[in-house]
Amino acid sequence: MIRGESAGWSWVDTIEHAPELLGQTPPMAATWQSIPVPDLVPGDRIRFRGSEFDVGRIDSPFLGRDAMVCIIEDSPTRWHAYPAPKTESVETLRD
To answer: What confidence tens digit (pLDDT) does each residue in 2-43 have?
Structure first.
């Protein structure tokens, strides 16, 4: 390549398309919807308490309390537990 010639790609292009390249782009028809915590299922993509993650599992009852659940994020790079009352709502990405 001669100095000053384009390599055919740029970091801007790569960054803009990173979610697509990594297979993380949700379907185009999907929208964020508010749903009650009891309607969550493993695999849902949610926004909850400032975090966005995929639900790995849901433990219920949580700490012996029927009114509580524990939403578990479990990925190769991160594990986190989010206690939540069943009366709370979360945003989820649904078709």
So the answer is: 544 545 555 545 555 566 656 666 556 678 999 999 999 999
CB 80 within 8 A of CB 53: yes
Does some domain include residue 10?
no
- Look at strands 31-36 and 89-94 and give their pairing: antiparallel
Q: pTM value?
A: 0.66
Determine the Cα–Cα distance for residues 43 and 45; give it in Å rounded to an integer.
6
H-helix or E-strand spanning residue 18? helix 18-21
Structural domain containing residue 50: 27-94
The tally of domains found in the chain comes to: 1
Residue 23 half-sphere exposure toward CB, CA atoms < 13 A = 0
* Assigned domain for 8 exists: no
CB 71 within 8 A of CB 40: yes
